[in-house]
Amino acid sequence: ESLVRTFTPFYFLVEPLDVLSVRGASVIMNCSAQCETPPRIEWKKDGTFLNLVSDDRRQLLPDGSLLINSVVHSKHNKPDEGYYQCVATVDSLGTIVSRTAKLTVAGK
User: Fold this and answer.
1) Distance (Å, rounded) from C-alpha 105 to C-alpha 108?
2) CA separation for the pair 15, 30 (Å, rounded)
3) Keywords, A to Z (predicted)?
4) Verdict on whether the full-model pTM lies above 0.85
């Protein structure tokens, strides 16, 4: 008997855009993915997954967007500036990766 595989739509509704911020501001990197099974959303910064569980400044919002509270930026410490990607996973289907969005922090 043949197994008929139906195509399940799985796609981004919203992908993050480049953001220009200033130190101390809050930033939202938007992301939302659509699928019958709610996707698991994670974020990468400069190619590395962010651990948001133990992060008091960065949090995953219910829709999948990333909130960065109080952007940190100094001459020797630029933890927030960089390239962000939203990664959505549905275990039975696989993973999709958003476009890369650049967060730039302006000087004074």
Assistant:
1) 10
2) 6
3) Disulfide bond, Immunoglobulin domain, Repeat
4) yes
